[in-house]
Design a protein that fits this description.
With 130 residues, the chain is of the alpha/beta class. It has helices spanning 36-49, 67-81, 108-121, and strands at residues 2-7, 11-18, 21-29, 59-64, 86-88. It folds into 2 domains: 2-88, 2-Layer Sandwich (Nucleotidyltransferase, domain 5); 91-130, no CATH class. Helix 2 links the parallel strand 4 and strand 5 (86-88). The chain is globular, with a radius of gyration of 15 Å.
Length: 130
């Protein structure tokens, strides 16, 4: 299973994919004051509630628009799974060409949405993020 973590300003969404099937989706509140240990406990408990065994997680990908939480969430993942997560951001090969004046200003959430839209629809798409 691949654990996907989307860190947004208000919520953190966790999703688990077995092959290409979404196995679960869960949310928790974003709290910039929490530690790696606190996020590790929350992630572990949420996955347990969804019936996901810790050993099922074989990879983790993180998309974050809250830079101050990046190292905290990465640390929680390493603590739980001993894995180096893929962090979506500048330099990650997504297959999507970003044509704007400052490509590094495009949020990781929009990059992920673009990759997903291209994968599902195979071409030009309009993505609205609200």
């Amino acid at each position: 299973m691949v654990l996907c973590i989307d860190v947004e300003n208000s919520d953190i969404t966790l999703g688990g994919f077995r092959d290409s099937e979404l196995a679960f989706i869960a949310k928790l509140s974003t709290a910039v004051s929490e530690t790696e240990d606190e996020y590790a406990v929350k992630i572990l408990n949420i996955l347990a509630l969804r019936g996901v065994d810790k050993d099922e997680i074989k990879g983790v990908i993180i998309a974050s628009v809250v830079p101050q939480l990046n190292s905290v969430v990465i640390g929680a993942v390493k603590l739980l799974y001993g894995l180096e997560p893929i962090v979506v951001g500048p330099g990650v090969k997504s297959g999507i060409n970003i044509h704007c004046d400052t490509p590094s200003s495009v949020g990781a959430d929009l990059i992920c949405a673009s990759v997903a839209a291209y994968t599902v629809y195979g071409g030009t798409s309009l993505i609205v993020d609200m």
